[in-house]
UniProtKB/TrEMBL annotation:
Record-given protein name: RNA-binding protein KhpA
Pfam families (alphabetical): KH_KhpA-B
Gene this chain is encoded by: khpA
Molecular function GO labels: RNA binding
Gene Ontology biological process terms in this record: cell wall organization; peptidoglycan biosynthetic process; regulation of cell shape
Entry GO terms, CC: cytoplasm
Subunit note: Forms a complex with KhpB.
PANTHER family per the UniProt record, alphabetical: RNA-BINDING PROTEIN KHPA (PTHR34654:SF1), UPF0109 PROTEIN SCO5592 (PTHR34654)
Similarity annotation: Belongs to the KhpA RNA-binding protein family.
Length: 79
């Protein structure tokens, strides 16, 4: 899932080298922290959060055969 989010995000932003995905494992869930440059936040979130919602939908569909819940958090690089 980490690689999937990374590929999607890198294709959306102007600074693909600033895209970092950190995977945090929990007992019942996995949190994918997507970090992008501050100037690319708008491109990853989209108008009214539509791009962010689409990313989460794709990850949810790709993770159907995984027993854990996958959560995608979008953070700027300074967080």
């Amino acid at each position: 899932m980490k690689e999937l989010v990374q590929v999607i995000a890198k294709s959306l932003v102007d600074n693909p080298s600033e895209v970092h995905v950190n995977e945090v494992q929990g007992e019942q869930s996995v949190v994918l922290e997507l970090r992008v440059a501050p100037e690319d936040m708008g491109k990853v979130i989209g108008k009214q959060g539509k791009v962010a919602k689409a990313i989460r939908t794709v990850v949810k569909a790709a993770s159907l055969n995984v027993d854990k819940k996958i959560v995608v958090e979008i953070l700027d690089d300074k967080s």
